[in-house]
Amino acid sequence: MEDPTGISWVHRLPTGAPVDRQDFLLKMAEGKRVAHLGFVDEHLMAAKIADGRWLHTRLADVAHEIVGIDIEPDGVEWARANGYEALVADCQDARALAELPIDPVEVIVAGEIIEHLEAPGTFLRACHELVEPGGRLVVTTPNAAALQNFLAPFLGVELIHPDHLALFSPRTLEVLFERTGWSIEHIAYYQRPAPARRPRTVSGWALAMSRQAIAGALQLRPYWADGILVVGRSAGSDVD
Length: 240
Fold this sequence. Notes:
Number of strands: 7
Order of helices and strands: HEHHEHEHEHEHHEHE
CATH superfamily: Vaccinia Virus protein VP39
Largest sheet: 7 strands, mixed
Number of helices: 9
Radius of gyration: 19 Å
Number of domains: 1
Strand order of the largest sheet: 3-2-1-4-5-7-6
Distance between the termini: 32 Å
CATH class: Alpha Beta
Helix content: 25-40%
């Protein structure tokens, strides 16, 4: 569909079945020099470490080298005390990233942080300071068209993390990456796995069964999946 100015409003969506978010990130990091941005996950880190679900630990197990970068000093200090290489920096500040005492990495992992940022475009431009020419940036973020975003208004509510500032679609992410100097290599959907614990109530069983049915339907029509995953490649040139 085009408006009178010739602008197209219709854009094809990714069609592949949703991937497992952490499995995809682990494959991208395997054997590589990695920078993990926003790695602290301050509100959930303790619980995830206790359950063996903290992404940074899993990335460290497969990466050749890894450095965590976060604006939260307490979390960075804890990581250092537990044997991880970690640095404090605002990932929206290109100068701050350029001054970090690290060599360029092959892969940047930025999972579930772009929706928290006041300046996502500034952030994507700043990431060029961390990556080697031709290196990759992997961003994951909630899907604006996720099924719960359509169902929740029937109950008069909105389901969203209280710190989120934006929701993205495949097209808006594609445009944002291209305008900030990243060539799109891959766009896909991801679906979070169902909780491993067994439901203890009838409503819990009903929710688990409905989520399982939705997961099956998303294999054919992934457009309402939980999140979006984008891989961009740096051209190795400066971005204005």
